[in-house]
């Protein structure tokens, strides 16, 4: 095992970094998209329940199935991987953003409007900052989930640690196949822990003391 | 429109010195919410004089809050005009209008993710003030509402007590020095003792600033205490009586008002006399750091029983008896939290309450910015009661205009036949405009929706 | 999950209908509407699944298929794959329930209480392990077979059920437990008559989550010769047969949605009245 790691640490570090950066970029993309959608729908009960259903049903679609569906039109490569990871990352964030935004006391919104803030400014300066802790929780849930999904996405030859799992599988019984798979699995777990810690740190930095629990 | 203009007298301008408030005129204002049979506010015409405190009272659902929120157009009127300081604001940008009108709600409506300073500075920032000016203004306002800027500037709302939050809410509303302050049940969420204090402070602030304050309350005693004028509403924001507290208590317009005042109107008269209107007794003053023996000597010389210890801003912090002075060596600077204090604008009722609670038989009176003014005792209060019982109710000559021209009123009084024609025209135009009014509905809809969600 | 929003809709529908109508009529109408509103989402979901299934069928019938595609997608073959998939899913689910629920109960009892936090922490870390990695690792260890697939599925799905069982039991109001004990109920009686019934909604939602995870993960079993619908996806990719690939992916997705639907119906019916 140590030989395996020693021989390939550059490749492992590179794949790990690719995996991490794929997940982080998709998370950022997903957060932006989810917050925008949530901001558009949370005032309407009908649209909110539509969005919640979409998010609940979307989460039941197996990642592997969605990758299969996307390989058909898009071919192999990074594009289907990014789409799949970002899609699944957006769902929990979307749900939490809607919950967070609609959970703000109406009196707070009214007082923002009452002192002359426009709808948009109220959203930007009052509602989104107040919903941020809940949105960030959604981002943490997403991060844990899509770390694993990004590994499956390697099936479409996307970047990352999933490659070690699939190459170990294809060489099963051969030399180093177990080491290769273990590297992939443990690497993903380690990355997930690191990302979670980073997100907790982000929360410390971005959540004002006044609404920290 | 021009016809209606003629029917109401123009709002009085801020003539006397010191008044920074602006007059408000509600001109034939009606609000219909979609899906409701009766209008929430029905053809209300009402004049709110500059620099006065006007209290809106009435049973819940009577339209008083809707009326208040139409002044800053948080709720858009279906019909009619809103005139502030002589300018018709019915069509201007609502956000711009609201930046120029202070707004205070229950528990202050502070933003929990912002510090006290940011909360207070938010309107000046929107108006484009520079940082230094905002910081100076924040400190000034915190002083005004009796909070030490150094201590409270950087705190978050959850680190404040209910009363302090309410104070910051008032400071925030005053930040850009608006001529008008709207308050929606501002003291509803604090305990009774804090409420009395906050009421006193509001009166002190009003003494200093002379804004136009419109305040909704469900507490009639609060209305009597704070209001220069009280408007009593019935369903559909129908004005039952709009007059001074003295006249409403002494000469209720009808049975509805009588019932609303409830029993004990006589005792409530007590709330009409303010501490400043009766004579205050002097007191021996001491300062922290003085030798207790020196103070005791002064007390003995004056023939008093107590000495009042004040801090460097002349705010009372302790009230020491001769016996206590005898036991002390140096006077400490630690404030006594149970000090019986009433504001100079407090009513005799409050003063009596405070005395009874403290069992001291007397209370310390403070004026602007909590500065010590003198001592009031039980005998002073008793004398005042006797006097007010014999005093006749004075005729008020400059009562502001307030009347309804809506449907309810028409049914109630058939006498106004001339008005009735106008109503017919109004109601037909109302139907055509009720479709447009739906744009104003989300505020209420949001509120009820969120309640429904919270109930899940 | 979305049961909350369903409840909210029910409340709103009731309020709307009561506004204009006479009281008696409004009551019956609003009850009918409430019932409809609480089932509406479920009806839509089923209708959507059936429609998508029919669309897939029509597409397959009208598409111009090659000989290999025809053979791979023969109804009998599809039926076998689907049965294998369900077999994997349900077998794993039963094992998961047998392990996770008693374990969850045990871990929330006093003697083992101190283990609650560490177990949840480990469970959370385990959740971050990539499913495909767990499947492959176990196969390398146990051998490429149906049982290796089942075992890895069990490992993967134990976590949500265990966690929801513990959370469900933990959130039962301590005063209710105390009231039960105060009436002279034994600890076991309190567990079965107070705690478990109150924890049922949370536990069921954990079971549903696990089932959906299982359907998805079972598609990965094909990598280790475990059978199931995943073989259509890998075959489609390996032989560049788009039709097979899409059919496999859609069937897996529809099966997941269908299982989710069944789970929701059970949750809806089994929720204790008054909650």
UniProtKB/TrEMBL annotation, chain A:
Keywords: Membrane, Transmembrane, Transmembrane helix, Transport. PROSITE patterns: ABC_TM1. GO terms for biological process: glycine betaine transport; transmembrane transport. GO terms for cellular component: plasma membrane. It comes from the Bacteria. It is a multi-pass membrane protein. Residues 16-199 form the ABC transmembrane type-1 domain. Coiled coil: none annotated. The chain crosses the membrane at residues 20-42, 54-76, 82-109, 177-202. It is found in: Cell membrane; Membrane. The keyword Transport applies. Belongs to the binding-protein-dependent transport system permease family. This is ABC transporter permease. It comes from Cryobacterium frigoriphilum.
TrEMBL record, chain B:
Pfam families: ABC_tran (PF00005). Keywords: ATP-binding, Nucleotide-binding, Transport. Residues 422-456 are annotated as: Disordered. Transmembrane segments: none annotated. Its EC number is 7.6.2.9. Gene3D superfamilies: P-loop containing nucleotide triphosphate hydrolases. GO terms for molecular function: ABC-type quaternary ammonium compound transporting activity; ATP binding; ATP hydrolysis activity. Residues 24-261 form the ABC transporter domain. Residues 422-441 have a biased composition (Low complexity). PANTHER family: OSMOPROTECTANT IMPORT ATP-BINDING PROTEIN OSMV. Belongs to the ABC transporter superfamily. This is ABC-type quaternary amine transporter.
